[in-house]
Amino acid sequence: MRVTVIGTGYVGTVTGACLAYLGHRVTCVDSNQAKIDKLRGGVSPIYEPGLDDLITIAKERGGIGFETDLAPAVRESDVIFIAVGTPPLPSGESNLTYLESAARGIGAAMDSSRFRVVVNKSTVPVGSGGLVETLVREGVSETHPELSHRIAFGVASNPEFLREGSAILDSLYPDRIVVGADDPATMEAMRKLYEPLIQQRFPEPSFAPRPSQLQTGPKEIPVVETTITSAEMIKYSANAFLALKIGFANEMANICERVGAEVTEVMTGIGLDWRIGRAFLNAGIGWGGSCFGKDVSSLLHTAGEYGYQARILEASLAVNRMQRGVVIQKLQEKLFILKGRTVALLGLAFKPNTDDLRDAPSLQIAEKLIQMGVRVRAYDPVAMDACREQNPNMRIAYCDDAFSAVEHADAVVLVTEWPEFTGLNLKQLASRMNKAVLIDGRNVFSADAAREAGFEYAGIGRFAGRTAPRSTPAVAD
Ligand SMILES: NC(=O)c1ccc[n+]([C@@H]2O[C@H](COP(=O)([O-])OP(=O)(O)OC[C@H]3O[C@@H](n4cnc5c(N)ncnc54)[C@H](O)[C@@H]3O)[C@@H](O)[C@H]2O)c1
Predict the structure, then answer these.
(1) Does the first or last residue of the chain, that is N or C, have fewer Cβ atoms within 10 Å of its Cβ?
(2) CA distance 421 to 152
(3) Contact 285, 359 (CB under 8 A)
């Protein structure tokens, strides 16, 4: 099929590349010329493992092109994805400006040569499917009113569940595909689009092998066909629940610290119950990223518009806000006076394998420390350029590696659990420091090993008497 994807961010670029890999002819459109220039030059504007390679192969399979002009791409397309940002407004509501401009642009470019499906992949407040349809119609009637009764299109909601850092695996081998559509022709077009994905009829890329459960178990990807409103609500419910799981682990961690229990053991103990599950129960310094905070706030706002006070969502946001302060509190417990001290941050990205800094705990921690008169040094394997560019006034000394970051520091905080940090030689790290204090914000180190290396160690929810390292993978958004 001919496909246009509007927005070449974390979602749009991966979606476009995957659809082209499946055999569709894809045009990715973005209003940001610099991003399009990079993509045309074969360089992804975001850090996502495997994406550059996937784009290269996708060019040869279905074919993928990058444009700033929306109209020609829309005219040639059967399916048009909207994957633009929906960032939060100060009120918690989603900012729909980009979505509105994309939907109107689609309408303005439409002609009557074929039936098209406009697919909303951006996370949008419940009810936005109707808004998209209205905006597309407005775009049509503003540009060519004479054609408006002859232009046929359907609207679908197809929420995205990919995780930055493993976006290609998540997109090629999803747990499920959710499609909301209110008419059969639109649903049929979506089934046709996703058929190769649902039936897994494509060779696995060498850098994104097919998971074993798809080779041995049922080979089809489950499809959840719903109304548009349910599909929109599924996305918000999923993120609200995941944020809640992490928040729950953090709340238990805070209680564990007080009663002398080890949260990693407690979460393993409850996670083995199939009704609970161990994933996303890792205590730490709180979740971040572009989705959880924005989506929980947006759902809370929607509920409020209907006169409902969503108390669990409120508490989830409050617990996370509080958890970000735990690092400062632990530094104060170890160092007493922070003014004039030097603190090293290992990791800036909101999680490993991405350069995304949106709502990253690192930024809030750095800002607070700087305000308190602390000299902040930092090292991140990929997010330093983005951090420098996005926060030009933040007084962070960026360092070449973890060892130079801790040089003469009074404490080091593990903020992002990049794999290269978990294998660090702790003895060497401690020997470079003025005072060997380690705040393990993600519980990745063995407290015993850290203490043997000479560190004063504090994890999150970890009882000093028990010291096993975390045995499950890192939290991922
Ligand atoms: N990032 C994630 O992990 C993730 C996961 C699931 C869902 N989502 C949702 O997907 C949507 C996109 O998120 P993202 O992280 O990819 O955003 P992003 O900010 O990385 O990318 C959005 C892109 O859209 C472009 N854009 C904005 N308006 C445009 C217009 N009118 N025409 C053409 N291009 C336009 C921007 O220039 C930008 O490149 C959001 O609604 C988000 O909530 C994101």
Answers:
(1) N
(2) 54
(3) no
Catalytic entry in 18, 291, 387, 399: 291
Q: Which residues in the chain land under pLDDT 50?
A: 473-477
CA dist list (Å): 242 to 161, 206, 361: 11, 30, 17
Summary mean pLDDT of the chain = 95
* Sequence-separated (6 or more) residues with CB below 8 Å from residue 29: 4, 5, 6, 7, 8, 66, 67, 68, 69, 70, 73
> How remote is the CA of residue 153 from the centroid of ligand 1, in Å?
23
Query: From atom 15 of ligand 1, which residue's Cα is the shortest distance away?
Result: 10
Backbone angles phi, psi at 247, to 5 degrees: -60, -35
List the residue whose alpha carbon is closest to atom 7 of ligand 1: 160
The tens digit of pLDDT for each residue in 429-438 reads 999 999 999 9
Q: Alpha carbon of 476 to those of 74, 197, 205, 253: distances in Å?
A: 35, 23, 23, 18
Report the pocket of ligand 1 as residue ranges, CB < 6 Å. 6-12, 29-32, 35, 83-86, 98, 101-102, 122-123, 160, 162, 164, 290-291
Best mutation site among 10, 166, 177 for ligand 1, i.e. most ligand atoms within 8 A of its Cβ?
10
Global confidence as pTM: 0.94
pLDDT tens track for 88-147: 999 888 999 999 999 999 999 999 999 999 999 999 999 888 899 999 999 999 998 888
Strand 223-226 relative to strand 342-346, pairing: unpaired
Going by the DSSP 8-state scheme, the letter that residue 409 receives in this structure is -
Q: Please, are residues 345 and 394 in contact by the beta-carbon 8 Å criterion?
A: no
- Written as one string, the DSSP assignment of 280-333 is T---SS---SSSHHHHHHHHHHHHHHTT---HHHHHHHHHHHHHHTHHHHHHHH
Query: What is 81-138 written as a DSSP string?
Result: EE----PBPTTS-B--HHHHHHHHHHHHH--SSS-EEEEE-S---TTHHHHHHHHHHH
Q: Which residues contact 162 (CB under 8 A, 6 or more apart)?
A: 10, 11, 14, 170, 171, 174
Give burial (CB, 10 Å; 0-12/13-18/19+) of 199.
Answer: exposed
Q: Give the 3-state secondary structure of residue 164.
A: coil
Listed residue (148, 118, 143) closest to 133, CA to CA:
118
d(CA 152, CA 107): 11
Stretch (H or E) spanning 186: helix 184-198
Q: How far apart are alpha carbons 395 and 398 in whole angstroms?
A: 9
Q: How far apart are CA 409 and CA 376, in angstroms?
A: 9
Residue 334 and residue 93: Cα distance in Å, rounded? 40
Q: Is 256 a catalytic residue?
A: no
Q: 435 alpha carbon to ligand 1 midpoint, in Å?
A: 43
CA distance 28 to 8: 7
